[in-house]
Amino acid sequence: MPKIKKVAIAGASGALGPHVFKALADAGFEVTVLTRSKKPGAYDLAIEVLEVDFTSMDSLTSALKDIDAVVSTVGGTAVDGQTVLIDAAVAAGVKRFIPSDFGSVSTNPKLDKLPLYSSMANIREHLQKKAAVGELSWTVLACGAFLEFVLNMPTVIDFKNHTATILDDGDNRVTSTSMPLVGTAIAAILKNFEATKNQILHISEVIWTQNQLLGFAKELQPGIKWETNKTQTSVLLKESLEQIGAGDLSMPVILKLLKATALAGDTYGGAYDVTDNELLGIKELTADGLKTLVASHLA
Ligand SMILES: NC(=O)c1ccc[n+]([C@@H]2O[C@H](COP(=O)([O-])OP(=O)(O)OC[C@H]3O[C@@H](n4cnc5c(N)ncnc54)[C@H](OP(=O)(O)O)[C@@H]3O)[C@@H](O)[C@H]2O)c1
Q1: Would the N or C end of the chain have less CB density within 10 A of its end CB?
Q2: How do residues 85-125 score in pLDDT, each as one tens digit?
Q3: Largest alpha-carbon pair distance within the chain?
Q4: Which of 43, 59, 74, 151 to mutate to test the pocket of ligand 1 (most atoms within 8 A of CB)?
């Protein structure tokens, strides 16, 4: 059984990347950072940071020499470009590739043809082809909506301004995991090489609903007047696809597409009732724990 020792991470300077970098380093892997441009002072001097051209096979193959596994946490717009990184990983003899996916419903085949989701699906297909001929193994991690994004951004419930747009009946269940735990799971994947080979794994720290989060906020701050309105996820999905079709790829439109799908409950499987939490060392958050987190986000 191959033992993973040296791990390269691409996209380590983003939102998720630093948490994954820390978890890999804490788990004892020798981590190399692949970046488009070095950020002075970003890493301990002992860390190998390589400036690479993510469009060049030569640049990437040379950077991946002696690397056992590649973890990609590149941002959404760079997902398609990972084909070059995967091909270079094969050329360099890398044993495991974890692509930048880390979605909520991105692994649901019903969404494979939709903008954004099609990029993730193409990368999974590319990896499956390489694995089928024994060139590489892969693992995709589905983790739900990042818990930090759910609580810090006004997208689901705006805790600071006391407003919310309730989707459907507000009871759609959604999985979330915090970013440090996504890092924990990635390190565990690399420690459990055979058990995690060529599969999509699911982790879920907590399952919430909009009504539950709003209920916590109202209970914790009685007397506050909330402004709420309602819409349907199907309406949001139609609107977002029309806007994207008309060439609008702005962040509000992308967020609308993500909300319409990730918060659509059973329609796209946004809540994971069956998980790989135990294998990947994920401790679940209780409802009380979630309420405490909501309390820390109230104005
Ligand atoms: N489940 C959720 O709620 C959720 C939320 C957000 C994101 N995600 C997913 O998590 C993953 C990481 O997202 P993120 O928000 O952390 O990403 P991000 O902050 O937008 O970007 C991460 C890093 O990607 C690198 N990068 C950017 N453009 C690149 C390019 N063209 N080629 C190669 N590298 C490039 C940059 O690193 P360098 O400058 O160092 O090269 C950047 O710091 C994505 O798969 C995203 O879809 C999931």
Answers
A1: N
A2: 999 999 999 999 999 999 999 999 999 999 999 999 999 99
A3: 63
A4: 74
